[in-house]
Amino acid sequence: MIKYRTLGFVNTKDMFAVAVKEEFAVPAYNFNNMEQLQAIVMGCLETQSPVIIQVSKGARDYADRTLLSYMAQGAVEMMKREAKARKISEIPIALHLDHGDSLETCISCIESGFSSVMIDGSHLPHQENAELTREVVEYAHKYDITVEGEIGVLAGVEDDVSSLTHTYTEPEDVQDFVSRTGVDSLAIAIGTSHGAFKFKPGQKPEIRLDILHEIEKRIPGFPIVLHGSSSVPQDAVETINKNGGKLKDSIGIPEDQLRNAARSAVCKINIDSDGRLVMTAKIREIFSQKPAEFDPRKYLGPARDALREMYMRKNREVLGSADRAAAILALAGR
Ligand code: G3H
Ligand code: 13P
Ligand code: ZN
Q1: Ligand 1 center to residue 289 CA distance, Å?
Q2: Alpha carbon of 88 to those of 80, 186, 261: distances in Å?
Q3: Catalytic pick among 14, 61, 64, 98
Q4: Domains of the chain, CATH where assigned
Q5: Among 108, 161, 164, 188, which has the highest number of CB atoms less than 10 A from its own CB?
Q6: Which among 132, 258, 282, 163 has a CA at the least distance from the CA of 207?
Q7: Is the CB of 150 under 6 A from ligand 2?
Q8: Given this model, what pLDDT does residue 332 score?
């Protein structure tokens, strides 16, 4: 059993307490490889933002679970060294399992140093979801690890689970789920969806802030999580398609709607697809402009820079998480 604190991670408790009080959301960015992880951590250090670095089951299969968790540990060391060299404050980093599918996957992550896990039973009937989530909470809380549950189903793809339509979270269900399971945060379905194709051109992209407010009334101050919150940057889609790509037109979640949500009880916002688009756009551009280039550092390096810039802008302009790191570390007594 590797204890996450000895690796320098924090759980999400203090992050969410400050985020709820100060009306911002902590970014939860997915990573599958070194360049993504470097871009996330360096972008968040630069903007002095707390961050949740998260890995899906797919990421653990792709990059190897052991390699991924050692990379995450290395990222904390890199952040500390950079902070010291530049005489800036360190930032709180949580290592989180995204869309955990079973108690076993959660235990495997907890044992390898994760500070937070999600158990996603959203596709199960309410009772079964609550029971599974309760089991994970019982195990995780013994080690002071925070747990995210989910009720309601997002349209799009949730790992292996594919659903074509939203099942919005029923506000009447949340109190019962939260009190029965003891979860630390709750992911809800209010119109966001996974992937790069959320709304077709002509459709009005809208998240249901009315449902969010109903939920907030029932569990005041309880940390809410939004999955599927990429905004699908149109310049990245255009660059991809101008340089040989064939992405269909799509619209993501408008950033002003996310900013509004972050001012309420939403205190964790998950973004993955936007990073994939920005990286792909840069790599395609370089391949078009420099067809003789074959050193991966010459295209992955610029892609990493573009990604870091994107995270910095999200923290400053969308999540409102820039310059909040110190308040969280102060609450944690560090
Ligand atoms: O919610 C899904 C995340 O974007 C992770 O995606 O399962 O393809 O790694 P993935
Ligand atoms: P996007 O596909 O909108 O980036 O959502 C990511 C996510 O919810 C990860 O859990
Ligand atoms: Zn998700």
Answers
A1: 30
A2: 10, 33, 30
A3: 98
A4: 4-328 (3.20.20.70)
A5: 188
A6: 258
A7: no
A8: 87
